[in-house]
Amino acid sequence: MPTIKDVAKSAGVSPSTVSRVINNHPRISSETRKKVKESMKRIGYHPNIIARSLVKQKTNTLGLVMPYSTEEAFADPFYSEILRGIGSVAQDKEYSLLLITSNGEQEELEVTLKAVRSKRVDGLLILRAKSNDALLKELKELETPFVVVGRPEDEKNNFWVNNDNIESTKNLIEYLIGLGHKRIGVITGDSEYIVYKDRLEGYRRALYHNGIEYNPNYVIQTTGHHGLTTRYTKELLESYPKLTAIFAVDDLIAYGAILGIKELGLKVPDDISVVGFNNNPLSQLITPALTTVDINIFELGSTATKSLINIISEDPKEYYHEIVKTNIIVRDSCGGDKGEVDGNGE
């Protein structure tokens, strides 16, 4: 089995230089790093990850806290895409990933803290932002590095990566208003998730800035389950038949809404327009193709992972956050020209 000395001899450098390359020492030049890695690959040398972990007290593993069970998470294309973004950076930086899933808030807390206390991860990506989040408080007490994908309640005292959901939604609703819609229904999700609060706030701001009165009866809440969303959509339109458009706070909810509209014998967009959010891959394949907001899911994942690895490595003294831009993707579900519209108001 090849050793560090074999790599050093092949690359024409000292064994200590090979060791520094393996441990990502910042003072190694990119040219030397490339030469050593090529030699490692050529002679088939693989560092002993377990031994390195024992010496450095690091696992080179990032924990991903999913808001659902594994089965539910992978049924939502959002998580497949964000994992692709996370994985692209983790692989490049030689980090492994540990999925942490659960079936409820208490189980999530217990499973996550167990992974932290048993030193199975160096840091965590929290793939949701919730109100009154006990997990974040516990992680801070344990001094565990973490980044939230979303806007946490205490946004000034956390590391986080997100879109500007309020402004992006405001622009989406103003797009509908520009098409002549004034009676716009909303199908939102669980109010404990801050993303849905922000998107509802963006809806309200759009109405206010365009002189349209907010009607709380036009807003219904669903769990995201297709059957419930379909039923609630039908009930909303039967109660308020003058609605001309529906804003669904994410694309999966929009799919259920479109099914409900069709079951009422109505057509999208001839009778009622529908817009969604997230630009899931399926949104361009359904009939009609869904007008939605592209939140650049891959970039959300990659940006959050870069931030977490930086926090683990550098231990920054001040909190910061990053905002990933969005774009409105205009398709067939609300008419208008096909194309892309800036969703950030820039």
Automatic annotation (TrEMBL):
<protein>
    <submittedName>
        <fullName>Transcriptional regulator, LacI family</fullName>
    </submittedName>
</protein>
<dbReference type="GO" id="GO:0000976">
    <property type="term" value="F:transcription cis-regulatory region binding"/>
</dbReference>
<keyword id="KW-0804">Transcription</keyword>
<dbReference type="Pfam" id="PF00356">
    <property type="entry name" value="LacI"/>
</dbReference>
<dbReference type="GO" id="GO:0003700">
    <property type="term" value="F:DNA-binding transcription factor activity"/>
</dbReference>
<feature type="domain" description="HTH lacI-type">
    <location>
        <begin position="2"/>
        <end position="56"/>
    </location>
</feature>
<keyword id="KW-0238">DNA-binding</keyword>
<dbReference type="InterPro" id="IPR000843">
    <property type="entry name" value="HTH_LacI"/>
</dbReference>
<dbReference type="Pfam" id="PF13377">
    <property type="entry name" value="Peripla_BP_3"/>
</dbReference>
<dbReference type="InterPro" id="IPR028082">
    <property type="entry name" value="Peripla_BP_I"/>
</dbReference>
<dbReference type="InterPro" id="IPR010982">
    <property type="entry name" value="Lambda_DNA-bd_dom_sf"/>
</dbReference>
<dbReference type="InterPro" id="IPR046335">
    <property type="entry name" value="LacI/GalR-like_sensor"/>
</dbReference>
<keyword id="KW-0805">Transcription regulation</keyword>
